[in-house]
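Field log, afternoon session.

UNIT: design team B
ACTIVITY: writing a sequence onto a fixed backbone
BACKBONE:
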């Protein structure tokens, strides 16, 4: 589906160490594009030292395999009508790499450039109950400070009763790569974000 010139702009900004959250981000991008949005898929910079990355072959391999994915910039947030943020959980909070990027956005916040946009979040943990909900809720706290419109997936599609997280798409990485149910949930979450952002944009233009 080709986006209309007036379609909403959606930025999907994520951090992924070994590929799980990257897979969720790609599915979200697919869902947003099929809903008619202009989409930018952006990773945040890797801040871990090379020795740490190289200590895990799957981490180093993922860094190499996603070398062509553009890094997120402030301009991407300004451009977007809606932003989906994704990061693995680290001790119940978003991974530091994503937080490091968010903590550079003070100038945008100060000038009101992050307000009135739609925001949503997704995550992964290595084990069940490993901080998925608290990680998404922590990102929602940031969205409150920005004056954003928070759009969770809720139980607004049958897939949500199978995936089970109304806060945002999540996956237990210890079970392997995300399966079709989780990927479908990510697509649905992005479509819902596009739908709400489209309605808000149309209402403001009326």
């Amino acid at each position: 589906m080709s986006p209309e010139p007036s379609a909403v702009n959606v930025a999907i900004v994520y951090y992924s160490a070994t590929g799980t959250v990257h897979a969720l981000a790609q599915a979200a991008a697919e869902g947003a594009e099929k809903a008619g949005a202009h989409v930018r898929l952006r990773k945040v910079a890797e801040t871990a030292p090379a020795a740490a990355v190289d200590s895990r072959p799957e981490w180093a391999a993922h860094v190499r395999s996603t070398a062509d994915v553009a890094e997120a910039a402030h301009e991407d947030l300004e451009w977007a009508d809606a932003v989906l943020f994704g990061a693995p959980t680290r001790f119940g909070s978003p991974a530091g790499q994503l937080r490091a990027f968010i903590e550079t956005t003070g100038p945008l916040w100060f000038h009101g450039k992050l307000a009135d946009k739609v925001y949503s979040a997704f995550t992964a943990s290595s084990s069940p109950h490993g901080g998925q909900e608290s990680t998404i809720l922590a990102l929602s706290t940031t969205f409150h400070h920005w004056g954003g419109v928070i759009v969770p997936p809720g139980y607004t599609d049958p897939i949500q009763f199978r995936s089970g997280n109304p806060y945002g798409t999540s996956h237990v990485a210890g079970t392997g790569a995300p399966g079709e149910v989780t990927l479908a949930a990510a697509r649905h979450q992005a479509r819902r974000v596009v739908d709400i952002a489209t309605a808000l944009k149309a209402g403001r233009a009326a």
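LOG NOTE: The chain has a mean pLDDT of 96.
NEXT ACTIVITY: expression trials, pending approval
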